[in-house]
Amino acid sequence: GVSFLSFGRLRPLHTNAVIFAFVGNAMFAGIYYSMQRLLKARMFSDLLSKIHFWGWQLIIVAAAISLPLGYSTSKEYAELEWPIDIAIALIWVVFGINMIGTIIKRRERHIYVAIWFYIATFVTVAVLHIFNSLELPVSAMKSYSVYAGVQDALVQWWYGHNAVAFFLTTPFLGMMYYFVPKVANRPVYSYRLSIIHFWSLIFIYIWAGPHHLLYTALPDWAQNLGVVFSIMLLAPSWGGMINGLLTLRGVWDKVRTDAVLKFFVVAITGYGMATFEGPMLSLKNVNAIAHFTDWIIAHVHVGALAWNGFLSFGMIYWLIPRMTKTKLFSEKLANFHFWIGTLGIILYSLPMYVAGFLQASMWKQFKPDGGALQYGNFLETVTELMPMYWMRAIGGTLYLTGVIVLVYNIIRTVKQGSPVENELVEAPALAVISPSRLKGEKLHSWLERKPVQFMLLTTVAILIGGLIQILPTILVKSNIPTIAAVKPYTPLELEGRDLYIREGCVGCHSQMVRPFRSEVERYGDYSKAGEFVYDHPFLWGSKRTGPDLAREGVKGKPFNGGRDDVWHFNHMYDPQGLNEKSIMPRYQWLIKDELDKSSTQDKMRAMVTLGVPYTEAEINNALKHMDEQATKIETNLLANPEIKKSFGKETAAPLKNREIVALIAYLQRLGTDTQVKK
């Protein structure tokens, strides 16, 4: 296989492309267009607009190059390494300065609801990105998260959940509040509802992150807090959906013929479905079924394909003709795109829901006598899903076909149009705005004239939840009880763990056994918080396409089949050779490539800075220890006649110096130091 085309490396590229390239560019386009018209002022600085645009595209290119090459932090939606993280922060600040500058020089007294959502987006994404990306660089493209284990998991999902909230949701709600009334030619259904929608949504959303970590080693109080606020989220989310859909009352006849309105209706409905499902998935009994399965894949794609995708498509079909002084090239093609895209979403998500239920029920089933698991071999649960994966592929292809139709339609539209150089501002420059509340003026109406105060209040609203959840976990040591048996990784295991991160193994394998009888039976003892104190970053995973690996190193147990070094070697070299139905890719380059030990000691020193207790002697003797541990594994491997015949010949690098040996050392370590000897 080709290393940079393996699933583990392409998956983070896919999620980053959807979030930052597709949704990010659509959101900036919508914000730049609507903001200037709502504020009746040109953007604060054309230069900043250009820096923002080209800087963002360069970040996307950097992601497209670095992720397939294996430069990854492994933290979901935040996989990019530290130099790119810094670039994202800088470009985001450029965007913010441009936005705030425009709001301050506006010619419209009140800032409209769409702008509120844009302000919340800017503030919150900045806070989330900076705190989650705090990492200690080891080299130009390698760093370790400053948080460890449980703390890292909490901070990551505080970020991960709110990346969905404040990157995929709030800016699009702002765009909904601008474009839906514009296209329907009706005012927003309820101004009061939009105020309630905005403040309750941004305050509650930030608390919901821990619902990604139910039944894990995260302290119970944090899990339960996440659940309570997730359930509360239903109200503001559906308030927003109702506000959007009811804005269209009286124009339903137009929806039948107008492709743009059709896209908007399905987008808002998709938002409603996804935001009903989110709170439902955060109920512990539902989460016990859905977590780690394809149900979650269905859930996120309803949001991304319907809500983000269709809102963007509707916006593009409406904007481009206006920006080029012409009509849309083909209304028929736009309608065709709508129907094939809708069919694509249905054919994509329905099979994934079925697959999720099937996985969960197969994982949990015991034999009729109640003794052993009905499907003890994990692979049995994987092979059942193949028909669903084929249907999903067909659905995705239909959706993509619609996008290609859109590109053709837009290119033809632009070719037949002429550019609009500048639109005239329709409002005179503002007179001095009175700082105090006017007689009879409502509080919120006054606040809408004060963008700086508005921004400060928004910041306070989002910081409360974040601080209450995260500070106790980071500051109060007793929240994460230690386990005396847990020791830091040996130098070879540390390198193996970095290879595991590089290859994106965490995309298919979790390392978190939940306290369910079915999981303890299948994988071994459930996971405790103290096991992960030296894990920078944490690797709990969020999807089980393959079995959980938290106890992989505990040999001789019935659930582990006594997997020795030779088994791991063969499994990495040719998984289908061990079982023809396996869908795991081959990792043959790990066996060919020599392990780079040049920065091992730097990595250990970085870990010491982060609180891992390596001694100076251990760091100085690291290479010697690595050689000793690798030689033992090499001896085990060469005892196998087939491996000796194929790989025993002395080549440029002996077998003990290859990457595979470090990875085996790491896998064989997993779970061993938490086993209490009887």
Summary of the model, kept short:
The protein contains 28 helices and two strands.
What does this protein look like?
The protein is mainly alpha-helical and 678 residues long. The protein has helices spanning 7-39, 46-66, 82-104, 113-132, 149-166, 170-184, 191-205, 220-232, 234-246, 252-257, 259-281, 284-290, 294-323, 331-364, 378-383, 386-416, 443-447, 451-475, 491-502, 517-523, 565-573, 575-578, 589-592, 600-609, 616-620, 622-638, 641-647, 659-669; strands at residues 135-139, 142-145. α7 runs parallel beside α18 (451-475) and α26 (622-638) packs across α28 (659-669). The chain starts with 6 loop residues before the first helix and ends in a 9-residue tail after the last helix.
Write a concise keyword list for the protein shown above.
678 residues; mainly alpha; two-stranded antiparallel sheet
Order of helices and strands: HHHHEEHHHHHHHHHHHHHHHHHHHHHHHH
Unreliable spans: 556-560
Q: What spatial order of strands do you see in the largest sheet?
A: 1-2
C-alpha Rg, in Å? 27 Å
Oligomeric state of shown chains: single chain
Sheet of most strands: 2 strands, antiparallel
Helix content: 55-70%
Number of helices: 28
Mean pLDDT score: 93
In whole angstroms, the N-to-C terminal distance is: 44 Å
Shape: globular
Q: How many strands in all?
A: 2
Strand fraction: under 5%
